[in-house]
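Hi all, posting the design record for the shared folder.

TITLE: backbone redesign
STEP: 1 of 1
STRUCTURE INPUT:
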């Protein structure tokens, strides 16, 4: 089953900036056979359910192994059965609609 997820991994107690941990998580995600789109407050993930959740698990495991003691993640996930729609396609449909009004 394909899914689309929005992931935000937050290291707790690591200081004000979390860019190093975010970059580490992005590198981990890129090793998996999923589509990723980094945005200002997280990453959109798209792919097979098991691959998406294996990637999320790897982010937690590897950040802990790197010394991050506490992580909290927000995960929103959606599935649909009527068609296969990537994040780019989903975004393009809305952008096309917005451009119609110009």
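Okay, here is what came back for every position:
SEQUENCE:
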């Amino acid at each position: 089953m394909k899914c689309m997820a929005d992931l935000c991994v937050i290291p707790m107690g690591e200081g004000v900036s979390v860019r190093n941990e975010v970059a580490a998580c992005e590198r981990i995600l890129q090793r998996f056979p999923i589509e990723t789109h980094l945005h200002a407050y997280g990453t959109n993930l798209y792919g097979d359910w098991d691959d998406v959740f294996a990637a999320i698990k790897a982010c937690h495991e590897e950040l802990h192994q790197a010394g991050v003691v506490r992580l909290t993640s927000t995960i929103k996930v959606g599935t649909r059965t009527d068609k296969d729609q990537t994040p780019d396609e989903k975004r393009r449909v809305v952008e096309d609609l917005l451009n119609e009004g110009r």
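COMMENT: The beta strands are 2-11, 35-39, 42-48, 71-78.
Let me know if anyone wants the other runs.
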